[in-house]
C-alpha cells in the first residue's frame, strides 16, 4: 500500500467512523481563522504595481528633491472651477473666497493655495498677503481697474497657465480654471491621512456660496482618487455579489436538488472563504484589486469538488451500497483526483510568485493557500458532514429529495453529454485534429493581444455608471468626480490624463556646461514631442525658468549675458552665481521645481503631442536618455506605465511556461507513481493546451487587453483546464482498470463524471461570469476570461478527451504508448 493509499484510508476511517468529531474540529479551526479577518487592510490603485522599477525610483526622487512633483504631489490637490466666465468679478471673488476658507481651517493643514484670481488680485494690491485680502482687493476694484489688472496679469503669463484653452485675452473670458492646493504634510504622511484631509476639503469648497462640489467646483487629488477607487471595489461588490449569489444558489439547487446537501455544500464554500480571508489577515497581506479575483476562483474549485463528491456518492447509493461503503468508494476515487487538481492548480498559481509585481505575488500566495484549504475542507469536512447528515436523516421521517446522480440514466443531460463519446466512435481523428487546430489558431491569433496599464484602467465605464445610476440604493454607484476631471483636462485644457515625459538628470548641475547640456536635449526633438518651433521641444527645465526670468528682469538678464560665452541665452560659466540670483528672485519657487536644493540633480519635462501613441513617446524619451551625455533616467507616469507593460508581458509568458512545465512534470510523475505509466499524463495536457489557446485567442477577439489584474489568468487557466480533464481521465482510468473496454469505460465515465462536470461548469461559469456586471472594466474582463476558461476546459473534457482516448488506443501502441501495457497490470496488482 502506497503512502497515498494510507492517507486516503485514514481519511475514510475518520470520515465514516467519527464524522461529528471531524465537524467539530473544522468549526473550531474556522473560528480561529475568522479572527484574522479583522486584520485585513486595503491597497488599491496602480502604485502597487510600480515598485522597484527604475523609472518609478526616479519619479520618487523627483518627489523628494523638487518642490514641484510630476502630476502634482501626493499631498497636493486641485479645485477645477467652472463658470460662464471665471475672470468675472463674481467668479474671481468666489475663487478667492474658496482659497480663504481652505487656508483658514487649521485642521485641514493647507499650507497655501494659488489661482488665476491670485495673479489678478496681486496686480490690484501687491501687498495683499492673504486670500482674504486679495478677495477684498478684487471686490473693491472699479471695472476699469479690474480690466487693467487682468491685462497686466495676462502679460506675465499667469492667466493662461491656469485657465482653459478657450481663454480669450481680448474679451478677458474663460469658462474653467484650476486652483492649486498644497497641504502641510510630511512626505511620509499615510494615504489615509491625505484622503481624510482632501475629503474634508471637499466639504469646505461646497460651503462657499455659488460653489456646488462635484459640479462647478471639483476637488481632485491623490487622496480623493484613492478613496474613489476603493469605493469602486465596494460598488462592484454590492452589484456583483448579490447577482452571483442568486445564480450560484440557483444552479446549486439544480445540481444538488436536496436542501441538506446544498446546506453542506454552501457551508463548505463559506468555510473556504473564511479560512482564506483569515490567512490574509494573519499573513499581513492587504486586500487589493488583484485579490478580488481569488474568491471567484475558490468558488469555482469548491463548487466543482462539492458537486463531484455528492454526485459520486449518489452513484454508489443507487447501487444499494450503504452510507459508509458509498462514501469510502467516493473518497477512494475522488481524493486522488482532488489532489491532482489541487497540486496542478497550485503550480499555476505559485508561478505568479515569480512575478515582478507584489499584487500578483500576493495573488499567487493567497490563491494557492485558498485552493489548499478548499481541498482539505471538501475532501474531509464535506464527506464527514454528508455521512453525519445521512445517518441522522435515516432515523427521521424526512422525505427524500434529489438522490440520483446528475446526468444519470436517460435524462436529457445524459443524452447531450454523450455527444463527445458518440463522436469518438464516428470520427475521433477528425475531432482531435479539429480541436487541436482550433487551439493552435487561437494561440497564434492571441499573440497580437494588446497590453494595458494606467491609472485610467481602474476607472469605471461611464456608460455603465449612467445605467447603474437608475438603480435604487444601495445598488446605485457612488458619484465619482475623477471621470469629470478627466473629461475637463481633455476638453478644457487639451491635456491627456498623462501628457508628458521627464528626464531625471542624476548628476550635479553646477559645472559650467551643465545648463548647456540641458538645453541641448531640447534641440531637434523626436516627432512625438510637442515643439515650439522647428528645432526646439516644448519643454520645461531650469533653463526655461532662467530664460523666462531674464525676459522680465533686466538685471538678471544682464547677469545671464555676462556668463553666456556662446551668446545663445544659456549661461555656460559661473553657473552657481546664476542659480543664486535666480533663487533669490520671485521665480525661486518655479526654479526649485527643476533643480534640487543641493544642485545635485535636475529635471526636464517634455510635452507630448496630443494623440501620440504612448509607447512611441516612451521609446523616444528612452532613446534621448541614451543619447545625451547627461546621466539621465527617463521617468514620468507614461514611462513607468510602459515599464510595467514590458514586465507584465514578460511575466505572463514566464508564468505560463512555468505553470505548464511544472504541471507536465507533476502529472507525469503522478501517473508513473499511481498508474505505472508516466505518459498517461499526456491525456490531461493536450486538452489544457487547447483551452489556453482558445482563451488567448478570445482575449484578442473580444478586445480584452492583458493587464496586471488578468495576467495570472494564463497560468491559472492551466489549473482550471486540468481540473476538468483530471476528473474525466481519472474516472476513465478506474473503469478501464476494472476491465471494461474503452468504449464502455467512456460510457460509464460520461454517465457519472460528465453530469458532475456539467453541474460544476454551469454553476461556476454563471458565478464567475456575473463579474461582467462589475463597474470596473478590469474586473469585468477578468470574470469573462475566467468563465471562458472554465467553459473551454469543460468542452475539451467532454468533446476532446473521449476522441483523444480512442485515438491513443488505436495508434499509441505503434510507438509503444498504447493504453494497454501498464494500466491493466497495475490494476491487477492493486496499484493505483
From TrEMBL:
Membrane-crossing segments per the record: 20-40, 237-256, 263-285, 291-313, 334-357, 363-385, 656-674, 680-702, 750-775, 782-808
Region called Disordered, residue ranges: 115-136
UniProt-annotated location(s): Cell membrane
Membrane topology type: Multi-pass membrane protein
Pfam families associated with the record: MMPL
Keywords, in A-Z order: Cell membrane, Membrane, Transmembrane, Transmembrane helix
Record has Transmembrane as a keyword: yes
Sequence ranges assigned to domain SSD in this UniProt record: 265-388, 643-807
GO cellular component: plasma membrane
Main location: membrane
PROSITE patterns linked: SSD (PS50156)
Superkingdom of the organism of origin: Archaea
Protein family membership: Belongs to the resistance-nodulation-cell division (RND) (TC 2.A.6) family. MmpL subfamily.
Name the UniProt record assigns to this protein: MMPL family transporter
Organism (species): Halorubrum miltondacostae
